[in-house]
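Dear Dr. H.,

I hope your travels went smoothly. While you were away I took the liberty of generating a structure for the chain from your last submission, since the lab meeting agenda had it listed for discussion. I wanted you to have the full record in hand beforehand rather than looking at slides cold. The sequence, exactly as received, is reproduced here:
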Amino acid sequence: MAGKRKNRLLVLSYLATKFEPEKKYSEQDVNLILMGLIDNYVTRRRDLIEYNFLNRTDDGRLYWRSK
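The corresponding predicted structure, in token form, is as follows:
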């Protein structure tokens, strides 16, 4: 199980590099970026938030890369 989590973190770390630091993205923009890289983009978007690779506003309208 630890290996699976490590692999997930490596994938999420890679995906996070596709977002410019300090730039704000709409959910649609985030989806478009992720769609070009992976199949299950909705789950990975949620994982990016859960594992603090991306942040978002409370209403989910804007996303940005964590520092």
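Two observations you may find useful: The two ends are 27 Å apart (CA to CA). Residues 54 and 65 are 4 Å apart (CA to CA).

With kind regards,
E. W.
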